[in-house]
Design a protein that fits this description.
The structure holds two protein chains of two kinds. Chain A has no helices and no strands. By secondary structure, chain A is low in regular secondary structure. Chain A is elongated. Chain B is mainly alpha-helical. Chain B has one domain (3-206). Chain B is built from eight helices and two strands, in the order H-H-H-H-H-H-E-H-H-E. Chain B has helices at 3-26, 34-47, 58-81, 96-108, 115-129, 132-141, 146-172, 178-200, and strands at residues 143-144, 208-209. Chain B is globular and about 45 Å long. Classes of the chains: A little secondary structure, B mainly alpha. Chain B: Belongs to the ERD2 family. Chain B: InterPro entries: ER_ret_rcpt (IPR000133).
Chain lengths: 10, 212
């Protein structure tokens, strides 16, 4: 993802 | 959330529950690698530190807490409560050979050179190889109890389903994360040999026994 994008998976 | 990710998470949850129930019901952790379990606890701890910095969803938060609690619960059962049943003679894989390369790789290849991001990256790399001490233990003893096989199958299936999730997300959401995808492929490949034995032996009611 883009830098700083949250990781939304486990 | 798509069906592959949901099934992947449920498979992961099932694996963790199978392991805890096996240890609890048999009052024994024989055949389980404490070293792999230590690595998994490190994986969850490093990855889920974002619990305190970012909120994704209730589902995400609850699952993270469940995996953390289950992981430390497993360590408690293995190293304290049922310590006498821990088969440490067969659990001899040198985990520093996994941890150190993962630390170095996380420092070199990451999305952003910040503490949380490097810890997340480290956890992704470490998770991909965390099962090796367990697989090494199975190969050393030459066999695994059926319940341990079910645990390994559910755990391996989880990341395999995530691969489908990532393919889906690539097309449906234009979302992809190469670090997670490559590590996920490595992780799934490591289980392939075990999957083969599971399908050809355990599902036919036989014990998982490696050829001599």
């Amino acid at each position: 993802p883009e830098t700083g994008e949250e990781h939304d998976e486990l | 959330m798509n069906i592959f990710r949901l099934l992947g998470d449920l498979s992961h949850l099932l694996a963790v529950i199978i392991l805890l129930l096996k240890i609890w019901k048999t009052r024994s952790c024989a055949g389980i690698s404490g070293r792999s379990q230590i690595l998994f606890a490190a994986v969850y701890t490093a990855r889920y530190l974002d619990l305190v910095t970012s909120y994704i969803s209730a589902y995400n938060t609850v699952m993270k807490i469940v995996f953390l609690v289950a992981s430390y619960g497993t360590l408690y059962l293995m190293f304290l409560k049922f310590k006498a049943t821990y088969d440490h003679n067969h659990d001899t894989f040198r985990i520093e050979f996994l941890v150190l390369p993962c630390v170095i790789l996380a420092l070199l290849i990451n999305h952003d050179f910040s503490a949380l991001e490097i810890l997340w990256t480290f956890s992704i790399y470490l998770e991909s190889v965390a099962i090796l001490p367990q697989l090494f233990m199975v190969s050393k003893t030459g066999e695994a109890e059926s319940i341990t096989s079910h645990y390994l199958f559910a755990l391996g299936t989880y990341r395999g389903l995530y691969l489908f999730n990532w393919i889906y997300r690539y097309y449906a959401e234009d979302h992809y994360d190469l670090i997670a995808i490559i590590a996920g492929i490595v992780q799934t490949v490591l289980y392939c040999d075990f999957f083969y034995l599971y399908i050809t032996k355990v599902l036919k009611g036989k014990k998982l026994q490696l050829p001599a």
